[in-house]
Amino acid sequence: MFVNFRRIRKCQFMQLMTTCLVLSLVMVCWEQLDNSVVSHVKSYSYRYLVNSFTYINKSLTIPREQAKSFSNFPYLLDHTDKCVSKDVLLLLFVKTSPENIERRNAIRSTWGNETYIQNALGVTVKVVFALGASQARNKVPSWSKRFGFQEQLIKEDGLHGDLIQQDFLDSFHNLTLKLIMQFHWTHNHCAHARFLMTADDDIFVHMPNLVSYLQDVSSRGVTDFWIGRVHRGAPPIRSKDSKYYVSHEMYQWLSYPDYTAGAGYVVSRDVADKIYHAMLTLNASLYIDDVFMGICANAVGVSPQEHVYFSGEGKAPYHMCIYNQMMTSHGHVEDIYNLWKVATDPQVKQKTSGLIGRLHCAAVKIALLCKPYYFNTYPCKAAFL
Ligand SMILES: *[C@@H]1O[C@H](CO)[C@@H](O)[C@H](O)[C@H]1NC(C)=O
Ligand SMILES: *[C@@H]1O[C@H](CO)[C@@H](O)[C@H](O)[C@H]1NC(C)=O
Ligand SMILES: *[C@@H]1O[C@H](CO)[C@@H](O)[C@H](O)[C@H]1NC(C)=O
Ligand SMILES: *[C@@H]1O[C@H](CO)[C@@H](O)[C@H](O)[C@H]1NC(C)=O
Predict the structure, then answer these.
(1) In testing the pocket of ligand 1, which one of 103, 104, 110, 113 has its CB within 8 Å of the most ligand atoms?
(2) Sign for the pseudo-dihedral over CA of 94, 270, 73, 164
(3) Ligand 1 touching residue 113 (CB < 6 A)
(4) Alpha helix (H) ranges present in 203-260?
(5) Cα(47)–Cα(95) distance, integer angstroms
(6) Contacts of 39 (CB under 8 A, 6+ apart)
């Protein structure tokens, strides 16, 4: 009897303690909750109920003369004849920074090797690197360092002939300028390429899969095509600590128009042209480049489509059954050589085809992609395609 009584009291005490703990956790986390949960609820409501982004277009439209200031930087490195008189399937811009020479070299000798693509896949893909001017200009000792960097870039460009560089400071907050440069350059020098892609320099592109997919899309004569990992109803981040902080002055609405993750997306020729024209009259001071792309597309009535094998921030699991279908995967630097080798091995196609191969892969993909706690990859539904 006495023992029981004590046990009950202990139990109540534990309950009380747990309640206190939970309450204090909620209080501590409230701000976090408020920032993420509440802003998402608002933003989804805006996206799905109000869904009127026409105001955005109106309020960001500025006179052409003023919009020019976002695009008229002189070119420091350029290759205006890259695409001349060729049937280009894909023009692929890799967003890079002056110091990332190792990433560029890795891309050149793996998925971005134009000669390999021409020989092995029988199509012309042009891979060029978009960059601004070196940051070192602002640091001490400024002059020597900046020219050192630029000299190295000129040397690198002499070897490979694939750097497109404009004279704006290469920084995170100038990514939108880099985006605008890509669309301007395409309009001026490669408007006949059937597709335009923009990608980060730490991305892996499964070029054979991408080429055969784009050939298929092209043969069906698809227009208004914009594909990637889609963000729908994403709210602007108002917390000043965030890298993606956007002030009310810069963007006043509760939700961004739909856009694809900047890690890698593809548009068709007609979309590239429309976006170029939208860029001529929009205020590009919003520095999140993929969101700005969404705003431009919204202004010309183009909306993005989801492809489950395009990754956003996520890195694909290493497995043959994934390589068979993957398009892009984000966050690859050191492993890019090895991934390129294993992902394009002819054995992959052999082992993943046939009834047994397909059944095996279906099970593997469910196991790899449908874990409830594993967000960093392709969505679960990719396992069923
Ligand atoms: C690109 O591929 C070709 C042919 O496959 C090869 O000869 C060349 O060395 C490769 N380039 C680089 C930079 O690896
Ligand atoms: C963007 O580039 C311009 C031109 O070089 C420069 O004046 C400006 O400070 C840069 N902005 C940021 C945020 O780096
Ligand atoms: C563009 O927007 C910024 C705010 O994000 C504003 O300060 C600037 O004046 C605008 N530019 C023009 C030309 O209206
Ligand atoms: C966006 O604004 C421009 C200029 O105000 C207008 O010409 C264009 O039709 C608008 N687009 C949409 C989709 O409302």
Answers:
(1) 113
(2) positive
(3) yes
(4) 207-219
(5) 29
(6) 235, 238, 254
pLDDT given at position 1? 46
Nearest ligand by distance to the CA of 207: 1
Domain ranges of the chain: 65-306, 320-384
**Whole-angstrom Cα distance, residue 290 to residue 272?**
14
Question: Does the beta carbon of 174 lie inside 6 Å of ligand 2?
Answer: yes
| 3-class state of residue 51 by DSSP | coil
pLDDT higher than threshold 90 for residue 140: no
216-244 pLDDT, tens per residue? Answer: 999 999 999 999 999 998 999 988 999 99
Query: Quick check: pTM over 0.85?
Result: yes
How far does the centroid of ligand 2 lie from the alpha carbon of residue 99, in Å? 17
CATH C-level class of 65-306: alpha beta
The residue behind tokens 């802003």 is: 39
**Closest ligand relative to 105 C-alpha:** 1
Q: Which atom of ligand 1 is nearest to the CA of 108?
A: 13
